[in-house]
Design goal:
Elements lengths: L1 E9 L2 E8 L8 E10 L1 H9 L15 E2 L4 E8 L12 E4 L25 E4 L1 H5 L3 E3 L5 H5 L1 H13 L1 E4 L2 E6 L6 E5 L4 H12 L6 E6 L2 H10 L2 H6 L3 E6 L5 H8 L5 E6 L4 H9 L1 E9 L14 H6 L3 E4 L5 H12 L9 E6 L3 H6 L8 E5 L7 E2 L3 H4 L4 H12 L6 H9 L5
Parallel strand pairs: 11-12, 11-14, 12-13, 14-15, 15-16, 17-18
Antiparallel strand pairs: 1-2, 1-4, 3-5, 3-7, 3-18, 5-6, 6-8, 9-10, 17-19
Helix pairs in contact: 4-5, 4-11, 14-15
Length: about 425
């Protein structure tokens, strides 16, 4: 089968090429990729080439397909897996296979499977490790975002608490407790708010902070105080760029502090705010990955000793977290569209990947079977002044509170030039 894919040959050397996939073996599966969400990890792989721990040393001679946050449809199933998968079935993939201790992963290490491709050959180890995940939701882009959503879900599962005199950790947040999400109105912060409002273990009080009123207002329009209240949560959006943020946050908590505090920006003052508002046995989760290896902030060790405060960090989710994301999306409990800010076709994947840090906004979503430059959703209306396609997309996204949607995806796929 002929495929078109973006392959990595070395440092900053990505090439969009057409080539034949090998014949499928009995223990393999052929699939059609529809969408891929570009991850910063793909940028790192593109910058490092063979020096990246997941990219093979011989990628210059045997290039691999880049992209690991993808969703599509199964086309053909080998005999070994015919009792578990069927053609036409939607799927997502957990790229962290951990197959026999190897760090090889789709989107980095394999010649015939990766997200930036029209068709892929899924190797046996993906199914052996139960990492080919069926998806029953409507939109393909949601399946692409299951992996980044799993990172958010995993961070809540990683929280832990203790009981005096008992040397075990009770995993998860304090149900019915008090929670703060600091610097929490970026795309991943919004995903965290969405999850904690709609999951089955929720706080009674949730405070979300930022230092920009416009961003806070936007967050409140997407994930409203009223929606949180329907699920038993008292939600506050607070600008900590004004007044005394620690005093203000402590006052909202009733003076007791917060059981669970999540930090969504690698900024020392934000980390120190989080430390200062922890309750007895409070858990601080440092979600934001810093780019500087020497990043540090002050932490109150008096409180560590006498108030049993503690810290945890997470940098990804596991397969169970992905399954939870896929299930909640299929049930309409999570809306990953809040992550997406840009849309593009396969011919935009190379430049998007190589320039990802300099492109503002949240997730950049690539549809692998169409030709289209990378476009910000916010720019649809302006482009629509001269292009009817973008005028229609602007209309659709406006009806969905400025967010990408299944309706927008359906229209784009039906009205775009093939790659």
């Amino acid at each position: 089968m002929l495929t078109k894919a973006l392959r990595i040959y070395g440092k900053e050397d990505l090439r969009l090429e057409e080539f034949e996939l090998p014949e499928m073996k009995d223990d393999e599966i052929v699939a059609k990729v529809i969408s891929d969400s570009i991850c910063m990890s793909s940028y790192k792989a593109a910058m490092q080439g063979a020096d990246h721990k997941r990219v093979p040393n011989d990628c210059a001679e045997n290039p691999t397909i880049i992209g690991h946050e993808f969703c599509g449809e199964i086309v053909k199933v080998g005999a070994k897996w015919a009792d578990k998968f069927v053609p036409g079935q939607k799927f997502s993939i957990q790229p962290a296979l951990n197959y026999k201790g190897s760090q090889d992963a789709p989107g980095y290490s394999f010649r015939y499977i990766g997200g930036d491709a029209t068709y892929v050959l899924i190797p046996n180890e993906v199914m052996e490790m139960d990492c080919l995940l069926p998806y029953s939701g409507d939109a393909f882009f949601k399946g692409s975002l299951a992996e980044p959503l799993s990172c958010v879900i995993g961070t809540f599962h990683a929280m832990y608490h203790t009981k005096l005199g008992v040397y075990t950790h009770d995993m998860g947040i304090v149900e019915g407790g008090k929670m703060a999400i600091l610097a929490g109105v970026g795309p991943m912060g919004l995903a965290a708010i969405d999850y904690i409002i709609h999951c089955d273990r929720r706080p009674s009080l949730l405070v979300v902070t930022d230092i920009d009123d416009a961003r806070l207002a936007r967050a409140a329009s997407i994930l409203s105080v009223e929606e949180a209240a329907k699920n038993g949560i008292e939600l506050h959006y607070v600008n900590t760029g004004k007044g005394d943020p620690v005093a203000d946050l402590m006052e909202i908590s009733g003076g007791t502090g917060y059981n669970d505090v999540l930090v969504f920006a690698p900024v020392a003052p934000v980390v120190e705010q989080a430390d200062a508002i922890l309750a007895f046995d409070g858990c601080l989760n440092f979600f934001a990955g810093p780019s500087k290896k020497d990043f540090s902030a002050k932490f109150n060790f008096y409180n560590v000793h006498y108030n049993y405060t503690h810290i945890v960090g997470t940098s990804g989710g596991n397969t169970d977290d992905m399954r939870e994301a896929l299930t909640m999306m299929s049930e309409g409990k999570l809306n990953p569209a809040i992550l997406v800010t840009h849309i593009g076709g396969m011919d935009a994947a190379k430049e998007t990947t190589l320039n990802l840090p300099s492109i503002p906004g949240g997730k950049k979503l690539i549809y692998t079977h169409i030709s289209m430059p990378l476009v910000a959703i916010a720019d649809f209306a302006k482009l629509g002044e001269t292009d009817p396609k973008f005028a229609k997309l602007a209309e659709i996204t406006e009806r969905h509170n400025g967010l990408w949607s299944y309706e927008a995806e359906e229209y784009l796929l039906a009205n775009s030039e093939s790659i």
